[in-house]
Amino acid sequence: MTGSLSPNPTPQGSAGPAEPPRQPLTPTSPPDDAVLPARHPEAPAPGTAIGSHYVHCFGCGPQQTGGLQMDVRAGEGLDVTAEFVVKPLHQGGPGLAHGGILVTAMDETLGSLNWLLHTAAVTGRLESDFVRPVPVDSLLHIRAWVTGVVGRKIYCAGEGRIGGPEGPVAIRAQALFIQVKLEHFTTHGRPEDIKAALDDPDLFKRARAFEVNP
Ligand SMILES: CCCCC/C=C\C/C=C\C/C=C\C/C=C\CCCC(=O)SCCNC(=O)CCNC(=O)[C@H](O)C(C)(C)COP(=O)(O)OP(=O)(O)OC[C@H]1O[C@@H](n2cnc3c(N)ncnc32)[C@H](O)[C@@H]1OP(=O)(O)O
């Protein structure tokens, strides 16, 4: 499977979004035997907010007041959208977003594709191209889509546009997520945080659903 940066799905017969420049093949490019699985039957309905996977997550946690508090929405296919407003707190250069913050926003959005597949997966590799600077106060409209799956490996790509879905592209990303079992979190996480997470019935139920419905 090549042309991995092509947004998926593009309705057949429509012109679709403009093709970005073709990137060289890298470990985040889906190989030829990658498949595009069906959207999971219990995936969030198109247009609905996916919700935070963990209330203290730096990317999406509503209780993480210094975090990005991103709100990601499910798309029609294996795709999601998110919006993020760059705050003065996120500066790298004067009046400009820090590149690492933009990558975090991309990571969070790409990671949310897990919900469409009902798979718990962590970022193994994340590549990004910074195409244009993003001023403070800008709204970054992010779209991400699955480009292929091989076994535990989930390939995906995304782009962030300034001002809205038709705005100029500021960042592109390609990533490889690796499916993990819940033990990944319970084995490696700080014990007090794991205990608190396991004591949260909603989180536990949500997380377990992934494991029994891979
Ligand atoms: C009870 C509480 C639960 C709380 C959690 C609740 C819900 C969670 C559920 C879902 C989350 C939902 C949304 C998430 C949204 C956003 C979150 C942001 C995501 C992140 O921010 S997450 C943090 C950063 N992330 C890490 O902290 C990972 C650290 N890392 C590891 O934990 C291991 O490294 C791991 C697991 C990645 C792999 O380890 P492993 O032992 O399981 O597997 P292995 O190494 O065999 O790799 C298998 C195949 O992937 C290939 N492969 C692996 N890594 C590669 C690389 N980098 N480049 C190219 N290929 C790679 C191999 O080459 C092999 O390929 P092949 O099968 O072909 O040989």
From TrEMBL:
It is found in: Cell projection, Ruffle membrane; Cytoplasm; Membrane. Residues 95-161 form the Thioesterase domain. SUPFAM superfamilies: Thioesterase/thiol ester dehydrase-isomerase. Keywords: Apoptosis, Cell membrane, Cell projection, Cytoplasm, Fatty acid metabolism, Hydrolase, Lipid metabolism, Membrane, Transit peptide. It is a peripheral membrane protein. Gene3D superfamilies: Hotdog Thioesterase. Its EC number is 3.1.2.2. InterPro entries: HotDog_dom_sf, THEM4/THEM5_acyl-CoA_thioest, Thioestr_dom. It catalyses: (9Z)-octadecenoyl-CoA + H2O = (9Z)-octadecenoate + CoA + H(+); hexadecanoyl-CoA + H2O = hexadecanoate + CoA + H(+); octanoyl-CoA + H2O = octanoate + CoA + H(+); tetradecanoyl-CoA + H2O = tetradecanoate + CoA + H(+). Residues 1-47 are annotated as: Disordered. It holds the Pfam family 4HBT. The keyword Phosphoprotein does not apply. Residues 18-30 have a biased composition (Pro residues). Residues 1-13 have a biased composition (Polar residues). It is an enzyme of class 3 (hydrolase). The keyword Transmembrane does not apply. It comes from the Bacteria. Its main location: membrane. Belongs to the THEM4/THEM5 thioesterase family. This is Acyl-coenzyme A thioesterase THEM4. It comes from Kitasatospora nipponensis.
